[in-house]
Amino acid sequence: MRGQWALLRGLLRGRDNPLRRATDRREAWVALGALLLLVIGAPAAGWAGGSVADAALQRSVRAQHQERHPVDAVVVGRVPGRERYVGDPEGGSERAARIRVVASWQAPDGSPRTGEVATASGSGAPGSPLRIWTDATGLPVAPPMDGHAARTHAVLGGIGTFLLAAGCVEAGRRVVVGRMVRQRYARLDREWAAAGSDWGRAGTGG
């Protein structure tokens, strides 16, 4: 980035310099185009990427809240050796001690269900009430993602898109400028080779 600014400042100060080469002007245009893409294009790509991710995640949040239902259950017994520290994988809650217990509840059609579910470590005694989430068939599922967690994921996605776009712009600039520099040196080598046989001889011109 600093190299692009230095190149542009130098060329603007020396735009009337008769020693300025055509390749210098082309490199300046490349630098200017890359700078505009970094200042305008990359943030726009990040905003677009974040917006698309947010829309998709919010649709997922709404779908999960429609498909998953909170159900009151009762602890039947604790599953030995199943305590661990976990966090809500979709809701974005803080990590907390969780245990696996056997609980009973009613499915949406009224049929009784029993199975292993995760709950806070302080509510694992038999007979303790707990709230679980089930799908339409009554099977336990993870809690639905909340809107705040979805928005956080979308912001991170937008930042990632911005960084990716900026990296692509800078990589493209380096490739183009590198090719132009190689072409310049190749042309100088050809010109030097053409003039080298007569270089330094008297009467061969200025």
Automatic annotation (TrEMBL):
The segment annotated Disordered runs over: 107-128
User: Which InterPro entries does the UniProt entry name for this protein?
Assistant: MT1774/Rv1733c-like (IPR039708)
Q: Out of the domains of life, which is the source?
A: Bacteria
Protein name per UniProt: Uncharacterized protein
Q: Cite the source lineage.
A: Bacteria, Bacillati, Actinomycetota, Actinomycetes, Kitasatosporales
